[in-house]
Amino acid sequence: MALENATYISDLVTTNPTGSDSRATADDHIRLLKSTIKTTFPNVTGAVTATHTQINYLVGVTSAIQTQLDARALVDGANAAIYGYKTVGFYAEYDNGNSSTAKTIVLANGQKQKVTLTANTTLTIDFTGCKVGDYQIRLIQDATGSRTLAAISGLSSSRWVGSATQPSHNTAANGETLLTVSVKTAASSTGCIQSLVKIGA
Q1: Which pTM value belongs to this model?
Q2: CA-based nearest residue to 155, from 201, 200, 107, 119
Q3: Of 94, 107, 196, which Cα lies nearest the Cα of 152?
Q4: Residues of the chain with pLDDT under 50
Q5: Distance (Å, rounded) from C-alpha 9 to C-alpha 25?
Q6: What is the biggest distance separating any 2 CA atoms in the chain, rounded to whole angstroms?
Q7: Is the CB of residue 147 less than 8 Å from the CB of residue 123?
């Protein structure tokens, strides 16, 4: 009987069984086929829907794909460089909605944010979970305007760019002001530098 010893599919001999083998050996060959398939694909417990073209995309992969992706992409905690990009765009500003009389801006919500001043407002900057980088918050007066802005909590009163105190903001109806916070220590206000610049007069 031409029945090979096989563990995996690659061990099967394509010329077996031979034409002279007894029909009684057919069950041995069938069991061998089933065992090599199950041993070769031990973790396949459902339908495999990938096409042969999709599976062939794996040709040339020499290690775990996720490991390779992590090596090329910035991941949390990695001290790596990103280069070769012309621009890095943002999907949209994070909208903090209306300020009311008090509003907390969580920097970790995004590097581009906005808030509409709908009352005389006290802003608080929350550094929890934020990374080192420059954060821009667009302060927008509502249609009434003249909304005052108290000293912004969480920022250093002496770390304003070009000013010893918090600069004035745009109070015109629908007027805008850009608050930029440059974070030097992740999740901390330590060493941060801030600026407050009117858009327009």
Answers
A1: 0.69
A2: 107
A3: 196
A4: none
A5: 19
A6: 99
A7: no
